[in-house]
Design goal:
The chain has 121 residues and is mostly beta strands. The chain contains no helices and 11 strands.
């Protein structure tokens, strides 16, 4: 059974930091690109950060660049999102995502249940 379990969300004042974690089970974690998305009320879900299977390459949305850092520990089947200098507009539900596409074009796409991040100004 595939599971992605996020933790680390909460309430923080503007300028503060949070570290989100997502622990995976039920699939070969090291074969998947891992991503963090967020969804604010009334807005579409958006990609925040991604990291390749081996952890060597990362990518960030412009809003996250320079403030957020994604990392992973394949020995612990866990991906992290370190969020610094948080702003009110970072308030959202944050979702962990595991994604893989095979050479045959078959996509695997798994989601966590989300963790709420609330930043007060």
């Amino acid at each position: 059974q595939v599971q992605l379990v996020e933790s680390g969300g909460g309430s923080v004042q503007s300028g503060g930091s949070l570290r989100l974690s997502c622990t995976a089970s039920g699939f070969t974690f090291g074969s998947y690109t891992m991503r963090w998305f967020r969804e604010a009320p009334g807005k579409a879900r958006e990609l925040v950060a991604s990291i390749t299977e081996d952890g060597f390459d990362t990518d960030y949305a412009p809003a996250a660049q320079g403030r957020f850092s994604i990392s992973r520990d394949n020995t612990q089947n866990t991906v992290f999102l370190q969020m610094n200098s948080l702003k009110f507009e970072d308030t959202a539900e944050y979702y962990c995502n595991a994604y893989r596409i095979t050479g045959w074009g078959i996509e695997y796409d798994y989601w966590g249940q989300g963790t709420q991040v609330t930043v007060s100004s």
